[in-house]
Specification:
The chain has 363 residues and is α/β, with parallel strands linked by helices. Helix content is 29%, strand content 26%. The protein has helices at 61-73, 88-104, 135-145, 161-170, 184-193, 214-220, 238-248, 298-307, 312-326, and strands spanning 2-9, 12-21, 24-30, 38-41, 43-45, 50-51, 54-55, 76-83, 109-113, 149-154, 174-177, 197-198, 226-230, 253-256, 268-272, 275-280, 283-285, 344-347, 353-358, 361-362. The strands form four sheets. It has an eight-stranded parallel sheet. A seven-stranded mixed sheet has the order 3-2-1-4-18-19-20, covered by helices on one side. α2 (88-104) links the parallel β8 and β9. It is globular.
Amino acid sequence: MIVSGRIVTPDGVVEGSVHLDGDRIASVGPGTVTADRWILPGFVDIHNHGGGGFTFTTGDAAAAREAAAFHLRHGTTTMLASLVSSPFELMRDAVLAYAPLVTEGVLAGVHFEGPYLSHARCGAQNPEFLRDPSLDELTEIIKIADGSLRMVTIAPERTGALNAIRLLAEHGVVAAVGHTDGSYAEVMAAVDAGATVGTHLFNGMRPVHHREPGPIVALLDSPTVICELVADGVHLHDGTLAFAAHSAGSARSALITDAMTAAGMPDGEYDLGGLTVTVADRVARLANGSIAGSTLTMDAAVRRALGAGLSITDVAAMAATTPARAIGLADELGALRPGLRADLVELDAELRVVRVMKSGEWI
């Protein structure tokens, strides 16, 4: 199979064709282009709570399958199912329910955003379920997950956080820093302990101050940390998005949706981890005004990032290559490069999705 267009590779844009061999990319080379199409690597979303009217937050496998299918239609060929702060029983049940979807390839794994987060920066996390990290809980989850647990977000100032981060890192699970009121020193200690991702940078974090730089500066300035960015114009001003991407570089910036059930759905009331979320003009908020996830899809995030002035090569890296590396999948997918899985998105001249390929097959 051959797919032609303006192909966005890690080295730049090639006007030509992607040649496929089964579910793999065989080669990328110049040639005649007959259609006005952009070809990007399939998007990789490492922070997503649901979409299309379905959620990942309840541990329901049927709902998870539908949410993944919704985002696949918007170009996301690899995604984590993100849960919010929950009782341990729900965490355990969700891992067991989603493990078969991971084996099947519907999901790339599970991400727990909480419950080991800061009350002061809980955002749309249910404060009823927030608690200090438990090595017993994490040890059991890691065991029953059997490889399907990919990432856990932790506030490093909580008691026991550094030991929890070390435990996750030892077992190949990504430890992310987020929903934190921690100091610069506390966040740097988390990075030293093995944290490698910053959860939706700027959001759910103590803001920057020139005498106490806090989490944002610590994460942006740590060469081993990949920073998640929500490019929806609500979580981040476009200028902030561009600043963060320029500061960290595309190799350390990952576009995410932080989407919830309402992505792709009409305005109205929705549930997120037991909290009522009101969506108006596509913006999701709690009654107190806190942002509660997003209604974003990855194709829209790509358009927003390009509109903020970032190059298409950098944006493709931020939407696929970098997040794939963040969760340990860079040797398998995330770029249009020979030998990698044939996941790609075909976009028209306005950067709207025309069709999506996963593992060498158009969906």
